[in-house]
What we know:
12% strand, 49% helix, Rossmann fold, alpha/beta, five-stranded mixed sheet
Amino acid sequence: MSEYPAEILIVDDEPEVCSMLVEALSNPRRRCAAVPSGPEALRLLRERPFDLIVSDIVMPDMTGLELLAQARAVQPHCRTILMTGVSTPTLAKQAIRQGAFDYIEKPFSIEELRKVVDAAVEAPCPPDGLSEVARDEGAVGLRDPLTGLPSHRRFVEELARLRTRCRRSGGPVSVLIVDIRQFRLVNERHGHNRGDLLLREVGRRLKRCARDTDIVARYAWDQFALALPDTTEEAARPLAERCCATACEPVDLGSRRIVCTISIGLAECESGFIENETHLLRRASEALAEAKTRGPNTVVAWGELAGRDGQEPRPDLPGIEAMRREFQRLQTQLKQSYLESTRALVAAVEAKDPYTQKHSMTVSHYASSFARHMGLPAAQVEAITTAAILHDVGKIGIPDAILTKPGRLTESEFALVRRHPVMGVQILEHVSFLRAELPIILHHHERYDGRGYPAGLAGERIPLGARILHFADALDAMLSVRSYKGSRPIGYAVSEFRLGAGRQFDPAMARHVIEWIESHPEQIVYPHKRDVVLPRVLATC
Length: 541
């Protein structure tokens, strides 16, 4: 422990609660300050460092969850404990997913609060000398402090990496979401300390059931998740059933032994199915919801649900909720079918020249990786990923003679090629579920200095997703072979991003992109990794 007292910031809009917490938590090892609102807390966080924030969730000016998100940007190493008197499982899961150290329900005992605070301020910080991502791992929720397993955020990042690898090799990836049944009752009957012991033990048992190549993570408050590379839905079921059998064994919680039961939802991401991690996890969650209705230690695969089209909702499910899930599933299938069809058209354009094969998928890989590395919300990452897949669809309207022309383009030919973002939007503008993607596709060739096309936008007037896609498109162009050049080394691309920052590229974003490139060399896609012969390519326009 540090020789200096821990600095704790208490945030609650009720003055009596603030006074009570300051009195309860202050001692020679802890020094407390209290403010009545989130904006006041942010002001204080900008003025001096804190080790811990203890905040109410429901407050008028800014919620505790909003404060958590903004406080991490100001002081990334400061941990946060959230409290609420209006508790729901959804709220608890959201708090943990956003990186809260712990979540406490009111009313609580002062002794319980002191133990959680002690654990938060005494948890070791990552040592100096690590990468920025590694140093921030505990602060921004990349590793769960209770179980030591990867957190929700890290799991999604690792799942993206596995899907990229398996897509290249043509293999599937399966996901399990494991829910501890009636976990709230364990906390209520046996106390939160024994609940924590149960979570650690379940995490250890799942880790024992998994293979060395699998990823096991704490996914939410009472849930774990497993990612299984090169594993079909059918092949994943025995492992899921093994997890159920292992979880049934009595758990020793000190003076008590209890029997834990679980439910598991299973979904497979096939190698040719265009979707992102959010879609895959959503399908696994839908399967989990069905498994929880069927009783303890049940495994349900999403493929079972997908084969039930046209059936009436199960009698034991509320009719409205069942129909909502079915509609959401059908809508997801419709969107994926549309994207698959449109992607086939893009692939047809790319196939006209061997160099452009798999260009859109490679650019999508880079764009989604950059967006996740910047910490963007899942919905925004999804829109950027989809836009990257479709960003060159407008080239369908450009004659083959121009696309495959080996020599220099004339001024009129080049002007036509420069219209492909506009033509792409004209093709896609009537698709209601691509509203967020259209501005990204339209402006992905704009430059930060305003010298790009089609609108000549500059700076932050260019949509955020379009600025990210511009980096991804440029990176693939530099690493690809062209008729007038060979493949550039990755160091060349990094240098170009540094030199072009403030002119062609967003300077703040360039730092994040370069950081991702230097810390993820294994995810760089060179021409020889695309499983095609690359003799020549059209220059990127």
